[in-house]
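Hello again,

I reread your note about wanting to compare the complex against the isolated chains. To keep things tidy I'm splitting this into two emails, and this first one only covers the full assembly. Below are the input lines as submitted, including protein chains and any nucleic acid or small-molecule components. They are followed by the predicted structure of everything together. The single-chain runs will come separately.
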Amino acid sequence: MDVSSPRFKEKAVIALADPTLRQALGQSRKGFVNKRAELVAALPEFEALRDQARDVKNHVLENLDHYLERFDSAVTAAGGHVHWARDAEEARNIILGICERVQARTITKGKSMVSEEVNLNAALEKRGYTVVETDLGEYIIQLAKEPPSHIIAPAIHKTKEQVSDLFEAAHGGPRKTTVADLVTEARLVLRDKYFKADVGITGGNYLVAETGSSIIVTNEGNGDLTQTLAKVHIVTSGIERIVPTLEDVSLFLRILARSATGQETETYTTLSTGPRRPGDVDGPEEFHVVLVDNGRSKMLGGKFQDMLRCIRCGACMNHCPVYGAVGGHAYGWVYPGPMGSVLTPLFVGLDATRDLPNACTLNGRCQSVCPVRIPLPELLRELRHQQHQRGISPPVQRRALGVWRFVAERPGLYQFANRLAARALKGLSGRNGRLRHLPFASGWTALRDLPAPEGKTFLELWHARQT
Amino acid sequence: MPESRSAILQQIRAALGRGPLSDAAAAALDARRPAHPRIAVDDDDLVARFVTRFESRSGTVARVSGVDAIPAAVDAYRQAHGLPPRAAVARPLAGLAWPAGFIHHPGPAGQDEQMSVTPCLAGIAEIGSLILASGPDSPTTLNFVPDHHLIVLPAGRIVRHFEDAWTLLRALPGGLPRATNIISGPSRTGDVELTIQLGAHGPRSVHVLLVADADRATP
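Full-complex prediction:
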């Protein structure tokens, strides 16, 4: 997928002015947030589960090589194949190789963010394969020729009317106008595809080192039809998605759905262990797992290792005021919201993604809901720091920070400047104590008044209280 | 590709600042069996908790007096939903006394299949879910293709937590089955405006036949 993150500001402005998007985002996110809050309030163990989930993820990362080797052996013992991909191109080539060898024509896909990350669909289509996304949200955006705007609700930015338009254009009339009819129409269209598919590709929420199982957690059942009815099942997953044992799986099952969609559990949790066995009357004849590194191993041992704990639940974006205002597409790559603002610069480079770590108010809501306690604001701040170190941040900002630093390092000067500013701003403000215009601050004052200082600095007031 | 495997492992070890783990360290990791916090399931009555949770997600439950009563319960469900007298019935249930004229076959379920009847490995009371282990006696297509999935659950097979279900899975003769399906209700989607709609791709209806007589319930 092309990276359009350099156009974040432009796209954010367009998004803010789009009433349809506002409507779609407003309704949906509130649902996720409220349902999660209800479930968390009803579960006294939730905070202990989060601590434990964080610790298990850290344990896995410290021993990632070992658990990956164990997983590899266990998959092989179950009759499956593990492929290791250093980068996106290698991942695509592995999958293209399998599709070519089995002379595939139709390829069905369950939802996989890693396949978005490695830009798989474009590569498959270029070789002439028919690629069908089967998750309803993914199917909608495939018809719309758009990238996902949310990691678990890819079509969250679409209204029912827009879906009706897309289905009418793709399937022919008569136009369906209710959610029930739209879902039924997609169900019927996609049924044929599952049965026709030569290769079924799914993601992997968890890879179990102990058993060699890959796990998907879904509500629709599309991932299961995809992997059961195709001749070949390919799992695409990041190397960090390993969990050691089934006991660890239960831990993550207890937090994932609650954090993601505010459900006690999703409808289907499926463990896939190898291909069809002797006596089986269904199931895929081949089982492949493509382990994708693509920059992950480089995050180990460094300042961003915590990000590798991410279980892709989407809670951070559901609770982010910036995501809530501009939606997922403005972020310009595969992963939006707070987790995306950390991952995108690390995966595609700091230069093309300058605005992402700055599109954050550091309000901390993301961290407060993250089920594996990733310190997202801290990581975003670290990215800003690195931007500054490497001279990527805008010159005006750098000069302003330079001036601020010069003054801040000289307490006498700093306090003098503060006193001056407090009095000047009070003088400039109207009788209501508010500023309607301020040089260099039109970004604020264009949309709202700035409350003016009372005329005294904090230190002055503090000293007055002490005496 | 073998060189990618070693390159990735090497990069991981370099990032972690160490070489491969010693045999002793690796053995210690392999022996790790963590006891994570569980969700309190105080209910003495696991059956009641299972039913409440399962029904909260639009699953339905019918209590059946014994294994012999299963065919009648299936037929009653079939008639209530206006379905033809035909189903994919998993092998362990084929020997029951099915009504005359009721056609059944052991699977797989094809595109026209409207109803299936399967056993399950266990029910999980914690969240009210069923766990099904694939195999010749429980083909996976029966769980996903038909619109109506009927699952036979002996009451004595309801366990408290996920962990108890893992114990059952590990004890299976061939170890973990090819597909382990934890099913918590009918298929659903919220992908259009977050409006919950049942029957997205999998069964529109999942109906549990809860068999009271646990001792004789062998399916």
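For quick reference: The first helix of chain B runs from residue 2 to 16.

B.
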